[in-house]
Amino acid sequence: MLSSKVIGESHGQDSSYFLGWQEYEKNPFHETFNPSGIVQMGLAENQLCFDLIETWLEEHPQVLGLKKNEESVFRKLALFQDYYGLPAFKDAMAKFMGKIRGNKVNFDTNKMVLTAGSTSANETLMFCLANPGDAFLIPAPYYPGFDRDLKWRTGVEIVPIHCVSSNGYKITEDALEDAYERAHKLNLNVKGVLITNPSNPLGTSTTREELDLLLTFTSTKKIHMVSDEIYSGTVFDSPDFTSVLEVAKDKNMDLDEKIHVVYSLSKDLGLPGFRVGLIYSNNEKVVSAATKMSSFGLISSQTQHLLANLLSDERFTTNYLEENKKRLKERRDRLVSGLKESGIGCLKSNAGLFCWVDLRHLLKSNTFEAEHSLWTKIVCEVGLNISPGSSCHCDEPGWFRVCFANMSDQTMEVAMDRVKGFVEDNNRGTQKRTMWNTRRRSLINKWVSKLSAVTCESER
C-alpha cells in the first residue's frame, strides 16, 4: 500500500508544460545527428555566456584542483560541513546580489539560508509560512512548476491574481482584492503573495509602482510578501531591475519580518545543474527553521568553494553581467524579429530567457481547446516545443512562452525557418507532413484531450 503522494495526481506534472518536455526527449533536435527532431524552446536555460565561465576556469586551474595558495583543500571540503554554508561563499553571494541591484540593497549573510536551488528555497518558504490548506496569491500567468514546487508536498493552495494582456499584465489593486476575495469564498486562509520578478513567463520586470502596491497590500492584510528574483541579473533593457527590498527600504519597511526573497544562480549564471539557491529573510524564526530544513538539500562544499572563488573575482562578475545582458538582448531581438517576419507579435519584454508570444490569430476558435490543438501541431508537426499559456494559468487562449537562450545561433535559425514555413502553410490552408508517425500523434492528442477535459477549467 502506497502513500497518497505516490498515487495522487497533485504533483502538477501532467501539465502540457511537462508533456512537451517528454515529447522533446523522445526526439531531440541535433544539427548533425537528428536535424528533423524537436527544437527545445520550452526550457528556460541560459547558455549564452558559458564561454566566459569556461575561460575563467581555464585561467584558474587551482580552483578546480581544490587548491588554495598551492595547498590542497580537498580534505577540508571532503569532510562534513554544517548547513550554514561556507562563509566565503555566502560573502561572495551577498556581494554578487548587491552588484546586480546596483548596490542599492545590502545583504546580511546571517539572514541567508542556502538551498539546493530555488525550487527547494520556494518549497521551504511555503513550509515555513503556511500550513496545509492555506493559500498564496500569485500573479497569473505564472511559472507552471509552481503547481509542483509550492503545492505538492506542502499542501498549500495557489489562487491566481488574474492579470490581462490589455494592460501588459500589470498587477492592479482590483486584481489583488479580487484574488483575496475569491480565496476567502473558497474558505482559504491567505498567508501571502508570491511574485517572480522579473516575471516568468512574461519576461518583464515588476515596476516600482507595482512593488509599492504589493507591499502596501500585504502590509494592510498582515500577510507575507515573497519575491522570487532568480532572473534579476537578466534585465537587459529598460526599465532597470528593482528589488522588492529596495522599495521596502524606501517605505521604511526594510526590516519587515514578512518580506522574503528567493535567489539562485540557475538563470543569471546559467548553472541549474549546480543546484545553488537561497532564501533571504529578516525573520529570525524563518531563517532558523529554514536552515534546519536545508539539511535535506544542501549545496556541496566543492560547489561552494568553486563559486566562492568565481564570484569573488570582481573583474569577472562585472564583465559577465554586462556581456550577459548584451547577449540576451541580441538573442531576444533575433527571436522577436524572426517572429515578426512571420506576422507574429510578442509582449514587449526587457528581461528573462523567453518571450510571451501572441498566436491568438492562429487559433481556430477563441478557446483553450483550440490552443491545445495548436500546441499539439507546433510540437508534433513543426517540431518546436513551446509552452502554452494555459499551462501558465493564463486567462486568454493563444499566448505561448518561447525560450531563446538555451540554443546556438544556428538552432535559432532553424526554429525561425520552421515558424515561417508553418505560418505560410497555415495561411495557404495546406497541411504540413508530420514528422511523427500516426501512433505518436494519436498519443499526444489523447493527452491533450485529457488535459482539456480535466484541467482546463483549473488552468483558467
From TrEMBL:
InterPro entries: Aminotransferase_I/II_large, Ethylene_sulfur-biosynth, NHTrfase_class1_PyrdxlP-BS, PyrdxlP-dep_Trfase, PyrdxlP-dep_Trfase_major, PyrdxlP-dep_Trfase_small. It catalyses: S-adenosyl-L-methionine = 1-aminocyclopropane-1-carboxylate + S-methyl-5'-thioadenosine + H(+). Pathway: Alkene biosynthesis; ethylene biosynthesis via S-adenosyl-L-methionine; ethylene from S-adenosyl-L-methionine: step 1/2. Keywords: Ethylene biosynthesis, Fruit ripening, Lyase, Pyridoxal phosphate, S-adenosyl-L-methionine. Its cofactor is pyridoxal 5'-phosphate. GO terms for molecular function: 1-aminocyclopropane-1-carboxylate synthase activity; pyridoxal phosphate binding; transaminase activity. The keyword DNA-binding does not apply. GO terms for biological process: ethylene biosynthetic process; fruit ripening. Its EC number is 4.4.1.14. Residues 40-419 form the Aminotransferase class I/classII large domain. CDD domains: AAT_like. The keyword Lyase applies. Belongs to the class-I pyridoxal-phosphate-dependent aminotransferase family. 1-aminocyclopropane-1-carboxylate synthase (ACS) enzymes catalyze the conversion of S-adenosyl-L-methionine (SAM) into 1-aminocyclopropane-1-carboxylate (ACC), a direct precursor of ethylene. This is 1-aminocyclopropane-1-carboxylate synthase. It comes from Capsella rubella. The lineage of its organism: Eukaryota, Viridiplantae, Streptophyta, Embryophyta, Tracheophyta.
